[in-house]
Amino acid sequence: MAETKLKSQSLLHDHGISHSQINFNLGAEELYAEALSRGEGTLASNEALVVSTGKFTGRSPKDKYIVRHPESEKHVWWGTVNRDISEENFEKLYKKMVAAMNEKELFVADLFAGADPAFRLPIRVINEYAWHNLFCHQLFIRPNPAELAEHRPQFTIIDVPSVKADPATDGTTSSTFIVLNLEKGLILIGGTEYAGEMKKSIFTTLNYLLPLKGVMPMHCSANIGEKGDTAIFFGLSGTGKTTLSADPKRRLIGDDEHGWSDHGVFNFEGGCYAKCIKLSKENEPEIWSAIRRGSVLENVVLGENGIPDYDDTSKTENTRAAYPLHFISNSVEPSVGGHPKNIVFLTADAFGVLPPISRLSKEQALYHFISGYTAKLAGTERGVTEPEPNFSTCYGAPFMVHHPNVYADLLGKKIEEHDVKCWLVNTGWTGGAYGVGKRMNLPFTRAMVNAALAGELDNVKTNVDPFFGLHIPESVPNVPTEILNPRDTWSDKDAYDREAKELASKFVENFKKYEVGTAEEIRNAGPKG
Q1: Active site includes 256?
Q2: In this structure, are residues 278 and 285 in contact, taking their beta carbons and an 8 Å threshold?
Q3: For residue 125, what are the contacts with CB-CB under 8 A and spacing of at least 6?
Q4: Beta pairing, strands 340-347 & 421-426
Q5: Cα 1 to the chain's mean position, in Å?
Q6: How far apart are CA 259 and CA 186, in angstroms?
Q7: N or C: which end of the chain has fewer CB atoms below 10 A?
Q8: Residue 497 a catalytic site member
Q9: Distances (CA, A) of 298 to 186, 257, 313
Q10: Pairing relationship of beta strands 230-234 and 340-347 according to DSSP bridges
Q11: Burial class, 403, CB count within 10 angstroms (exposed 0-12 / middle 13-18 / buried 19+)
């Protein structure tokens, strides 16, 4: 261990970090104790560490940059998502970070991203907060002692929230910055305490690296059934990826980020990052039980006797729990699976017009994958006062470095090669739009997903939705037939027709930006508007 520490120390010297207040590769218990002793968090009644992320309770996508470089710039889909920053401005920020780190006690963790050894990325995380280092320790893949001795980081995250950029001189738009230098293998994060920036910066990195190797990176959860059948669940935050993949009858591969190679599916992470809003033991027993000593609760309000109040949104709707994968009792170790038999695309449609489950052709699947639709609700972001359509390319636009067609082409080839069945599942509203209708019943959604994965819907007769062209099953075991066609759940049928036509037109308008370079059969697989 001493030899490993010396090697790690010498690698930090390469960054100009020379002082001795560096804590290398502490275990979860040590980091937990450090965070408490430094006043970075408090204890909940379930012994989870409760922390506040300060001003930022979510990611800052407008403050993310990629250093423009001749080697990588030809692959990057530049624009509002992938903003460029010069090498010169990167170096200014880097020097600020190094100067600050030499005046602070630091916590360093050597970890992996990618459960498949053929594609795993050795990473290093350098933090000024012990709880940030604990967060990464629990969410990434932890090396065993032999792997740790040979560990050499290919990418290093330097996360120092107290360092702020000066937009006037540093080429940023605010004091917050998340900067990826793909050539140097460095990620700089400053001006924000939100820990999710570290997790997603590595996901962004893998979204750049893996397609160049023919591997499909995916913003999805994954699980595996008793017969070895793998299923993956694409979806944006709040659509149910974590909830629906944590199924007591299936083993969890992972809840958020995966790759799909010629070997099958593999988790990028060693932990889970679950939304806590409205969490209950009855509806999500696996997640409820996973939140315990060693877990990190972000922005969760504590009630009497330190009991977490998961219904309290006074700090944010985006309350989170971070815990290692093995805290889920039926997780897979190592977190890999075979080629998927089913793909489920999740959406939380606040307009109440999409069916709770529908079968997709390959072309429809790719259309919905490129569209990446869900809805934003009032209060979830500043300025959002009523439900808005949210189209996030490939169900993860902020993390997609290449053009969307790169990912769509990879997914289409794999769907065809492995004869994968595809489904669209609406976990949003039924019987009317948000404010009139009600949220889809979770046990019914589980029953629909379970029936699809078990093959029980393969031969069920379907009806074609006139607005979206979706194939809606006429019956699903253990689900009331009257909720399957969304129009039937509305008391005002004309209002449904108007709302459905309006949403269909927004799909069409959004897809115009992807028409160039997208196959005609995919373009024609969407709503008609």
Answers
A1: yes
A2: no
A3: 108, 109, 111, 132, 133, 136, 140, 156, 157, 159, 198
A4: parallel
A5: 34
A6: 22
A7: N
A8: no
A9: 26, 20, 12
A10: parallel
A11: middle
Cα gap 411→444, rounded to integer Å: 28
pLDDT confidence bin for 529, thresholds 50/70/90: low
Whether 430 is a known active-site residue: answer: no
Taking each helix axis from N to C terminus, what angle separates 28-37 and 130-139, rounded to the nearest 10 degrees? 150
The DSSP string of 187-246 is EEEES---THHHHHHHHHHHHHHGGGGT-EEEEEEEEE-TTS-EEEEE--TTSSHHHHH-
| Distance from C-alpha of 49 to C-alpha of 447, rounded to nearest angstrom | 34
- Cα separations (Å) of 319 from 31, 53, 56, 193? 21, 10, 12, 14
> How much is the pTM?
0.93
From residue 417, alpha-carbon distances to 181, 268, 358, 409, 423 in Å are: 35, 23, 22, 12, 17
- Average pLDDT score, the chain: 94
Asked if pLDDT for residue 258 goes beyond 70, the answer is yes
243 is an active site residue: no
Q: Given 164, 219, 275, 402, which residue is catalytic?
A: 219
Which entry of 8, 53, 59, 192 is annotated as an active-site residue? 59
Mapping DSSP to helix (H, G, I), strand (E, B) and coil, where does residue 15 land?
Answer: coil
**Do 198 and 179 meet the contact criterion of CB atoms below 8 Å apart?**
no
Which residues contact residue 497 at a Cβ distance below 8 angstroms, ignoring those fewer than 6 apart?
487
**Which residue among the candidates 63, 116, 159, 256 is catalytic per the annotation?**
256
Give yes or no for a contact between 98 and 106, defined as CB atoms under 8 angstroms apart. Answer: no
pLDDT tens column, 136-181:
999 999 999 999 999 999 999 999 999 999 999 999 999 999 999 9
Average pLDDT over every residue of 413-418: 97
Give yes or no: 83 in active site. no
Set 53, 201, 230, 242: catalytic member: 242
Amino acid found at 88? E
Residue bearing tokens 């669209």: 424
Residue-wise pLDDT tens digits, 11-25: 577 787 877 689 999
CA pseudo-torsion sign 330, 334, 337, 343: positive
Q: What is the pLDDT of residue 88?
A: 97
The neighbouring-strand residues paired with 340 are 230
Check 64, 200, 368, 446 and give the catalytic one.
200
Annotated active-site residue 242? The verdict is yes
d(CA 345, CA 316): 26
DSSP class per residue in 443-482: HHHHHHHHHHHTTTTTT--EEE-TTT--EEES-BTTB-GG
User: Given this model, what pLDDT does residue 89 score?
Assistant: 98
The one catalytic residue in 237, 243, 331, 430 is 237
